[in-house]
Amino acid sequence: MRRLILLLALLLELPSFSRAEFPALVPQEKPDYPVSAAVARLYDQWNPHEDRGNELYSNFKYTPLKGLELTPNISRRDPTKVLLIDGVYHVWYTGRRSQSAPVGVQDATDVKPGTDWDLADIWHASSKDGWNWVEDKEPAVRRPPKPEQGFRSICTPGILVWKGKYYLYFQAYSPMVGGQVWCPVRVASADTPDGPWRHHPDPALVPSPPGSWGSIKINDPCPVVHHGRILIYYKGAPIERGPEYVLRMQGVAFSDNPLGPFEASKLNPVINSGHETCVFPFKDGVAALVALDGPEKNTIQWSPDGENFRVMSMIQIPPIAPGPYCPDAFSDSGDGRGFTWGLCHINPDGGGAANESILARFDCDLSLDVNRESFKRNNLRFDEQTYLQKDVALPRFLKDLILKEQKTLDIETIR
Ligand code: AAL
């Protein structure tokens, strides 16, 4: 009898032994037996099928634009979202045509730009196919006359279509660009994508109160429409600088009038990382591509209400300053479909504020309407040139420092 009871007990135990090994066929539901913290995260935070099953994960593949190639002393950067109106694609961007390349903020003059986005206007280009582009002969929106805010440079536009009219929001600098200078966002409007554009006298967004996170600059205005309201996302910067202060975070402001006033979210900043903004409707919420800076750099995030975001994926080589072609950015359908391509900028010599930029096209799969397996891949690997390029290869001064520290840091493995 005792033997029988023991055998029964063993048999009852058996299933739990077999359950204890995590199966090769990944369970769709979170297992109800104990799992490690990492496996729990696969279900609680990620997706049991990793990035393959994640609509907000993608790689990005780049193509130079025909018609907007690099030309000395001409810079094009920070494109808006791309619109498709009556069969023609439209984009607006920071355009600089100056006598010289940027010379740095200290040496800037009335005709020599300090940074890549100094002495700039808002330019417009159009395309029939999204690959070949034609730039207008003149800027779409010119700097306003002195002493109006923005007489030195207007740059980094964001486009909104609202009730059949077009609105461009942009950074407005006067007198200087670069460093800790006052930068509100101005707005110009037009009845058609080809203009003419009218400057509105009042700023659409101004920096936040002294002592707060965005007290000197509001950058990268990025409008979307969600739940009947206009939301403008932006990067803020405080006047104070130093390791204890906010470097780069993003906030949002709401209005039902494109000319404002916009009311800043009480929860700002709503994104703790990122550099240029890129926000788009996704399902019934709002998604953001967050790149370059901060602890959540190079992620895609999603929020049901536009104010409370969570990380949905981690991405590699994200587009810089992306302006996606996102047809439902302003339709407020409650069912945002995402996007498959857009424009971004590249610094041909690797970056920095004093270098010229070109616009480029990126393709991806951040769309609910396609399934492009090659864009869902992991394990991207790069060639020798990538690792040994400027800014990635170890520079001489760091090698000297490392050699000095090596004397005390590299101690015997076995002592
Ligand atoms: C960009 C944007 C803003 C910054 C500068 C010009 O890529 O983040 O516009 O001010 O760089």
TrEMBL record:
Transmembrane segments: none annotated. Residues 1-20 form the signal peptide. Coiled coil: none annotated. GO terms for molecular function: hydrolase activity. InterPro entries: Glyco_hydro_beta-prop_sf. This is Glycosyl hydrolases family 43. Keywords: Hydrolase, Signal. It comes from Novipirellula artificiosorum.
